[in-house]
Amino acid sequence: MQAKVCRLLSTEEIRIDTVDVEQPKAGEVLIALGHGGICGSDLHYYKDGGFGAIRVREPIILGHEAAGTVMAVGEGCSTLSKGDVVSINPSQPCGQCKFCKEGKYSHCLNMEFMGSALRFPHCQGLFRQQLVVPEKQCHRFSKNKDTRFAACSEPLAVCLHAISRAGDLKGKKVLVTGAGPIGLLCALVASAAEPAELVVTDLEDHALDVATKIGATEVINIGSNPERLAHYANDKGTFDVAFECSAAPSAIRSAIETVRPLGTIVQVGVSGDRPIPINTLVGKEINFIGTHRFYKEFAEAVELIDNGVLDLSPVITHVFPLSSAKDAFDLAGDRSQTLKVLISFADEQAGDQQPAG
Asked: Residue 354: pLDDT above 80?
């Protein structure tokens, strides 16, 4: 059997190739992919050839956000059956290193993360029509069978882990800087935690409109109305917690300026080195916390989506067929028009569209 795949050859050069797909072995399942989401790291690979020290050094099948339907199961599989809709966890910790033995699997020293250029040879990704994976990497949906939403399990898991790093948000004043897909999903999860106030900032009005729909109490376009955020810096700051989702130097600075003394900033956005106002950070005794991927949160994300607890439809703006993957990547890089862009592997007739809620 053969399957089409989305392969990045070099900067802004994508080719739809065909690869052989074997039948699943013991403990494995064959998945027919339904949808996959284009992530910021995919865009960095496509546009820039990588980010920071991570560079694309060989052709790579992109994608680490995907869901599909089980087509066949190998010997010994006990949790999945043919026809099940599943989301694929792209994390493959070794289980043997010192961090895995401590239960800190997201920090595995030998992590294989599908669709990542961190290791060489690269770990190939999920943007393909069919794929054989270990059964243990698949999480089943029993109610919500829509693979558009199931494909959002991975970014939602990232945000659930980020929220967990901040502690209880109930009754807190919360800031989210950067209303891309991750920022909006952080805002969605934060809103469900019943904060007293939830302010979201961005440079794009269409993204801020979505933030309002998912629970933001105030949205601020910091390009056209920066003064609206400035007053939150009065009297040493207002916010108890900030989720910085852009990695822009100006956004990091504004988070430090507007978080109150002894408050918390969770740095979600990633980039290279950034200037930080250390004196203000120290003087206000701010907890500046990193957040990295997820572990148990992947199963939690699947459960929330499956049970309809969180409505992800406002975040998904476009769906492209696999044959138009390059168009999908080109549009996904235009933040003035898009949020989460998906690739459809099941329907090659599906064009650029606004999905139903």
From this structure: no
β 54-55/91-92 pair status: unpaired
Q: Write the DSSP symbol of residue 200.
A: E
| pTM metric for this prediction | 0.94
Q: What is the pLDDT of residue 244?
A: 98
Mean pLDDT of 34-57: 93
Dihedral angle of Cα 206, 322, 327, 35, to the nearest 10 degrees: 10
Read off the pLDDT of residues 169-212 as tens digits, 9 standing for 90 and up: 999 999 999 999 999 999 999 999 999 999 999 999 999 999 99
Neighbours of 329 (CB within 10 A): 23
Alpha-helical (H) ranges within the chain are 40-48, 98-101, 147-150, 153-166, 181-192, 205-213, 227-230, 249-258, 278-283, 297-306, 325-332
CB 302 within 8 A of CB 153: yes
The partner residues of 141 in beta bridges, in order of sequence, read 85
Query: What is the rounded distance in angstroms from the CA atom of residue 149 to the CA atom of residue 355?
Result: 11
Mean pLDDT of 35-48: 95
Look at residue 133 and give its three-state secondary structure.
Answer: strand
Q: Which two tokens stand for residue 49?
A: 């050839």
Residue 98 · residue 77 · CB < 8 Å: no
Are 76 and 28 contacting, i.e. CB atoms less than 8 angstroms apart? no
Q: Which domains, and CATH codes, for the chain?
A: 2-152+312-344 (3.90.180.10), 157-290 (3.40.50.720)
Residue 78 has a pLDDT of 94
Q: Give the whole-angstrom CA distance, residue 60 versus residue 123.
A: 8
Report the distance separating Cα 177 and Cα 247, nearest Å: 9
Give the count of beta carbons closer than 10 Å to the beta carbon of residue 125.
27
Residue labelled with tokens 């882990």: 161
